[in-house]
Amino acid sequence: MKVDRLVSIIMILLDKERIGAQELAAMFEVSPRTIYRDMDAINMAGIPVHSTSGVGGGFEIMEKYKIDRKVFSTTDLSAILMGLSNLSNMMRGDELVNALAKVKSFIPADKAQDIELKANQIYIDLSPWMGNRNLQSDLEVLKTALQESKLLTFEYADRYGNKTARTVEPYQLVLKNSHWYWQGYCHKRNDFRLFKLSRTSNLQIQKEIFTPRDYQKPQLDFTDMLATMQTKIKIRIHQSIMDRVLDFCTYEHFSPDGEEHYLVRFPFIENEYYYNILFSFGDKCECVEPLHIRTEMKRRLRDMAVLYEN
């Protein structure tokens, strides 16, 4: 059952008073039986469609349910177009193209220019400047597997580069902090796992269709947890990296230190990730305190120097 066909039928029913099954079947090049199944699906989705038999009969949506095009304000249409346009930049597909076309059909001619201007005021581009260019094709593979409930096989690399072969039932695609993740039930681990798309390779859709399980969405908000784990350390930074440091804390954490430097109360957890953040600032950042973290930074720098001395 194609989602874009169902959406198209709904839009036709909202726009017309009544239309016959045969006419719809010819329009979408399917059988009348398929149209009847589509109508059942639309009814189950909560849109009240009823049929009238005989000459002049057909399908129609209850009059009180029909949407007046004037119900959408300029702001409403601008927001919808903005969301759909930016989503289509990240994920290609006929469904998004058709949805954009249908929403645009609601735009009155006298408001088209104003709505287009507002819709283009925010543009989201999450494609990388450089790096892994296979993500787009992998996204399409994932989207197809999600829609058709088909198993995926692939190789997955952990953070140390160790690869394992996996077979997974896909359940959700997630965009978090400019990175794509996806959740699925891993047959190797016999549990739900969250996979980072950039660590996924040789992604292949299998013919086997799985029966969806009950599952909970992955936890993606760690704000409260991080608040209890983080401590504040003091770093001294050059003004040239202020914008990068502001990705991790607010300007209220900054205090001037001379003409070109700042002292910053920086949120920190003693693990590899946070040490790597500090090192990513290069010689424009110095850990001032506490002493044990400063000492650990020096030890790591010495180990790094040994690599180049040898």
TrEMBL record:
Gene3D superfamilies: Winged helix-like DNA-binding domain superfamily/Winged helix DNA-binding domain
Keywords linked to the UniProt accession: Transcription, Transcription regulation
Molecular function, one GO term: DNA-binding transcription factor activity
Residues annotated as domain HTH deoR-type: 2-57
Tree of life domain: Bacteria
Record-linked InterPro entries: CBASS_pafABC_assoc_protein, DeoR_HTH, HTH_11, PafC-like, WCX_dom, WH-like_DNA-bd_sf, WH_DNA-bd_sf, WYL_dom
Disulfide bond among keywords: no
The keyword Ribosomal protein belongs to this UniProt entry's keyword annotation: no
Protein name: YafY family transcriptional regulator
